[in-house]
Amino acid sequence: xxxxxxxxxxxxxxxxxxxxxxxxxxxxCVGRNYADHVVEMGGDPDREEPFFFTKPxxxxxxxxxxxxxxxxxxxxHHEAELVVAVGVEGADIExxxxxxxxxxxxxxxxxxxxxxxAEAKKRGRPWDMAKGFDHSAPMSPLxxxxxxxxxxxxxxxxxxxxxxxxxxxxAQQVWKVPEIVGNLSTYVRLMPGDLxxxxxxxxxxxxxxxxxxxxxIDGIGEIAFVMGPKP
Length: 231
Ligand code: MN
Hints:
Layout: E1 12-14, E2 21-23, E3 26-30, H1 35-40, E4 52-55, E5 60-61, E6 66-67, E7 76-78, E8 80-86, H2 95-98, E9 102-109, E10 112-113, H3 114-123, H4 128-131, E11 137-138, E12 143-144, H5 145-148, E13 155-160, E14 163-169, H6 177-184, E15 194-197, E16 205-206, E17 212-217, E18 221-227
Parallel strand pairs: 3-15, 5-11, 6-18
Antiparallel strand pairs: 1-2, 3-4, 7-10, 7-16, 8-9, 8-15, 9-12, 13-14, 13-17, 17-18
Bound molecules: manganese (II) ion (MN).
């Protein structure tokens, strides 16, 4: 096949203990999945059905030191999240079978232009420009489930300049990984290479240029980066 120009390079996640990489196909994200974060965002913590939004595959950031600071925001927020990596195709997956489709896990940050998101919510507009901007998904390398299993608990922490901002636990998730995979697969056929960011615990807050961010999930991974200068 002849292309009019060179196709873009694939976005990838390194795999811990391996020289092969996880080729990223799509990035799905769950909204409101920890009761304490639902409350801090002014929502109702009842167990309503999960809802999803997306980020482009090339918004995943894994390399270097500085995450470029996004344009068009005065209120950039961090959200510390468990990332689920899909390794096996499936649609209408039963929750009891869902973990068979999960290849592994990573630690990730769902960077959010909170001001644009608030405006979009108010006006009934889409979230894409609030959530899916360039470099909006810093992630750690992937841990294979064959190495670490399928963790149901583990501390989720995010520090900014050495100060703890988010300190939750995977056990607090409203919707567990098998339910998320099952529910999402009723909307789209999940494919190898899909990533799912599974929501954030309480403590989301603003990031400034030059802030040093460390985010970790016990037993899964850690990512550290510095927010670049404001554009
Ligand atoms: Mn999020």
